[in-house]
Batch of 2 targets.
Target 1
Amino acid sequence: MDGQTGLNVAVVGATGAVGQQMIETLVKRDFPIKKLVLLSSARSAGKVVTVNGKEHVVQEAKPESFEGIDIALFSAGGSVSKELAPEAAKRGAIVIDNTSAFRMDQEVPLVVPEVNEEDVHTHKGIIANPNCSTIQMVVALEPVRKKFGLKKIIVSTYQAVSGAGAAAIEELKEETRAILAGEAYEPKVLPVKGADRHYQIAFNAIPQIDKFEDNGFTFEELKMINETKKIMHDQSLQVAATCVRLPVETGHSESVYFEIESEGVTANDIKELLKDAPGVVLQDDPANQVYPMPADCVGKQDVFVGRIRRDLDNEKGFHMWVVSDNLLKGAAWNSVQIAESLVRLGVVGQK
Amino acid sequence: MDGQTGLNVAVVGATGAVGQQMIETLVKRDFPIKKLVLLSSARSAGKVVTVNGKEHVVQEAKPESFEGIDIALFSAGGSVSKELAPEAAKRGAIVIDNTSAFRMDQEVPLVVPEVNEEDVHTHKGIIANPNCSTIQMVVALEPVRKKFGLKKIIVSTYQAVSGAGAAAIEELKEETRAILAGEAYEPKVLPVKGADRHYQIAFNAIPQIDKFEDNGFTFEELKMINETKKIMHDQSLQVAATCVRLPVETGHSESVYFEIESEGVTANDIKELLKDAPGVVLQDDPANQVYPMPADCVGKQDVFVGRIRRDLDNEKGFHMWVVSDNLLKGAAWNSVQIAESLVRLGVVGQK
């Protein structure tokens, strides 16, 4: 890193949970970096982060920080992205934004490389990284959509607390410890930081992620619904979601029901298809109790799929169970993958 | 209890988690008991259980134990029920069986009093208590079925470990403690006692409850599918289920999608209906973050329903979130309710 050739890369939110994973993933993938610039809020500026044996001082992110930057990975919250992503783009950087700030903006491609890599060509300076729970679902469903057509999705999620940030992880651990010791604990973070009410997550399940819309759905559920249609370029696709937070540190799981267009497709056909699908690892052997679980997916980049079976009433309906590390494929890895797509497709040129 | 008038009641499996709840519920409901007989396996026989201030020595359950018994509540495992329930019935007792041994037997009514109380009249000595996850779902859906017709159900469950017995509760606690302390822990109980493989439940989600069938569904899922049709007397009802075990001690949650027959029904219509439905408590006020959660339902007899909203694509489709104490409405309370129905409908007469 910081090599003679390569790209100038900025990471905004470098000290956060996802930012750290982004840096680690860039290193692990040996991404061609000429200069690495680590940025954060004023509060975290000055911290020293060691990358590949070299110390980097984290600087406060300002519009000028993006002069000469080729790719800027943003993961510092929606308000930071709204303010600084256009500034970075104005200065010639391509922003890969991990917040929800621009995802539904018609000018901004929303990209999961296994699904719609070519959409990076349409960027106008900003590319959005989808919501974590959306990404793993579309990776698992895109091969099905392409081969058999996709009509309807009904998903119920089982989401880890790390999606709500480092404070939520701390809350889960401290609260669990307190409950086991018979001590009181006052929740302050979950389900939504800054909301009026906070609830126990330890040994519980909270059917709220993000705030509620007037139609009774949460923003998280609407993200899954709207982002899926945008990524798959199909506004007629029917999508419904129920999003639930669990006492799991990392790894989102999803119970996915889907209906296809083709007739006569068997569960084995779906399994055969997903066995060789990009980014997917099939773990589906009920006889030997093989299926994906969040505890097994942590630190892995893949989307794990199992429990594939045909509905007993609808021969075009299928059920499956999809698990992935929400901080990697759900965030950092998908962002770095988009950066790799930009290089491979020649959208950014190495200097 | 042990009053001058009333019924002779036996509890089989009196020392187990559900058996204890059955006894407590009988006391709490002031059920008219003349004589209470506590029975168990040979292993637990001789234990002393105090009921309403009076000590009862638990006896080994044998065919002769049921002489003179009016109602026998069974919760000691399927093999005990298979062996002894017919013996009890032969001796004139009405068995209320909490195992899966007789649920799908055509001669045996499967009863949730809020739904099909009248079915107790058809008993031939044995009445079955449905699976815990089935009960709470049908209590929430029966008012909808009666008023608007019910066509299809797709449910994903979030089930507590207490459904797998006291050893599973112990495993969840010990394993959680070990993981927080950074110690190793070897799972021995979950997902299925006696299965080849056991998996970590702490900070995890296991998409297996009970064993697998050849069609890829688990027995637990098939129980929900088949029992729902039988209880609602509708074999044409489409039901699909995905059952998942969570690190929750008590309280099952369910993400339920359902399609009705009637047109023009709104989410508010469903809420109005469930507000006054028997056995249901509506907790549905998203603006104030009011929805059911397992941590809040423990020790309560009701079925809690919230997050009711209409599907965005199908105007006859709705989503809701259903939570109940799996040991109470899911087991002990429903069994005692059946006993109360037997009395109220005059199927058994007090002596």
Target 2
Amino acid sequence: MLPADQSTPNYEYIVDQLDKRNADAYVHIGDNQDQLLWYLTQFNGPDRDYAFVLTNTETTLCAPALFSEQAEREFPGDTVTTTKNNNRASAAQRSITVLKNTNEISRVLIPDSTSYWVYSELEKAGYTTVTTSNIEKMKMQKSPAEIENIRKTELIAQKAMQYAETILANATILEDKLIWKCKPLTTKRLRREINVKLARNGANDAGNTVIGAGESCADLHFNGEDNIRPDETVLIDLGPRGPSGYFGDITRTFVPGSPPEWEQDVYATVQKALQAGLEQLNDAPSITGSDVHTKIVEVIEANGYKTGDVDVGLYHGTGHGVGTSLHEPPFFSRDTVLEPGHVVTIEPGIYDPDRGGVRLEDLVLITKDGAENLVDYPCSSMPCERSI
Amino acid sequence: MLPADQSTPNYEYIVDQLDKRNADAYVHIGDNQDQLLWYLTQFNGPDRDYAFVLTNTETTLCAPALFSEQAEREFPGDTVTTTKNNNRASAAQRSITVLKNTNEISRVLIPDSTSYWVYSELEKAGYTTVTTSNIEKMKMQKSPAEIENIRKTELIAQKAMQYAETILANATILEDKLIWKCKPLTTKRLRREINVKLARNGANDAGNTVIGAGESCADLHFNGEDNIRPDETVLIDLGPRGPSGYFGDITRTFVPGSPPEWEQDVYATVQKALQAGLEQLNDAPSITGSDVHTKIVEVIEANGYKTGDVDVGLYHGTGHGVGTSLHEPPFFSRDTVLEPGHVVTIEPGIYDPDRGGVRLEDLVLITKDGAENLVDYPCSSMPCERSI
């Protein structure tokens, strides 16, 4: 599905990790659900295990023979070696053969997400394993080609948002319901329209089209069916995977009809918090994700809302990295310094399970002298018929 | 995204596995990419770890608090317990707390796909772990509600196939290209049309829309762009995930223009092989998947084509189970007896990397006195404008 149009992954990062942990090779075995493995190999492999092996001398993809042409076409590393069978036993055995054919390998670094089964195979083959949770961090620093991929997916997400907003703007209000094309507009119908628009542009919704209406906005990952009613919030959070394999992420909230006082006030507060977060990012690259989160929390509390472990207010993190995964480091909950080439969301929100909720989310590239917003989409509670 | 509209998973199967392995509890930790965990919990959780725990007294879902409403709504088991944080440390700790609160737990069964990290946490907490690769097999036996889910997804897949075939039928031939809506028809354009149709019907292409044209038909998972040319095979293999979370699977091959001799002969042979496989299934439930594979191989070899580890001929397996995963047990490569309630593909194919390839695939429910084809879609090399 995904063309390998980003630059070669920064394998030097893994070599550094080997040095730090006094290991001689890195072995990563997983299937096509493993987004870090996809990043490492750029191989659109099967839904059964295949392997990536890095030694000081070369990088190898151990792919099933049925996928050999594709593996050769996609893998940017040194060598593709194929296994007759398309299963995990082949993947593990083939990676062990690569290790055996390389001199002086005794300690092998594996991600701590490695399956127990693979770990046992390596140990049985005589290797000492050391585990790491650090490899995922190599994805934080995006190359210009990767940034371009994210930018393109974010544009597709914005087009889908524009279509959804236009539907809301064109819907008519009949008593307590929104009517669109002669039928009540539900979160399910709107989700389907959005997913069609994403598919039309070559993106996959990846199960990440979240739409809440009224109370269900407070259920952060609502994926059910709800009538969309006037004077209540409609929260639309899109996290599609683009044709390049890179994700985008954007959230807007609308109030068809006339926003009541609470909805108006919450909207204004969340918008201020987003603005404050964006301004704070202009101080990058000398700040951390948790600095941004703290700033957002300050604004929300200053406006009279609670944050943290609460039932009403802001009860989630406000930012994360986006790349070959929808959620990846850096996370704003940690003290990772934001550096040029990081791509992160800013997503303040305020919720009340009895009334609804507002979240606004932009996607931002950290640059050497501040930040560039990859989203060019207005925040307005009143849905408009837009063209972008 | 997915309503929990199948019946409760057969937890008794796991209890039996505990007995067999002399274990006191089963712990399964994974994220929303783990289709077995989804089956066990029916919970559309986050892309970070959560846990399922089964003891002799109850089944528990340990979900992050941010997802608590959704977890309560979706989990068909006994108890939902929530963790403050949305991360794997919380999931592991919470599952250990459930174990600690249950009397007489010392040996814990874990799937061997369990991450090394989770395994270590359980061992550190004082439990002995035993691993299994058997749990996936509990999915083989489908309930009536599950069969209905698969049937619905397969119908969506057939609608998308019908649309794709109609596009091919309506395309005009201009020199060596197919032209549709004034532009050359490529595998990429056709894939996009299919994915839009799937989205319109609430299904996700799940990255499984494979289209080959000419030579690329022999590349079994071709996902790139190729011109679709007259007198060459166009192979369309769809494996979407329906709104219920269950997959479908269908393949058809067409030859726009006039099939040359090789293409005609291969098409006829593959169609005979499919027919023979379907007839063999009528002897179910007293046969194995490998019986069916052997029968298909016989037909293909009797017609002068090679099979097995070859460059030209049939070089892949010819059947697998379909359910909450696109590929799950039973696999025709093994001697698993086909039983009523199994849903399996039959997919013979013949390929020549210099000329193209033909694959035809139906999806079949094993019944107590034979088999029911869940596909009602003709096999015809000439694309027609169809309505289904």
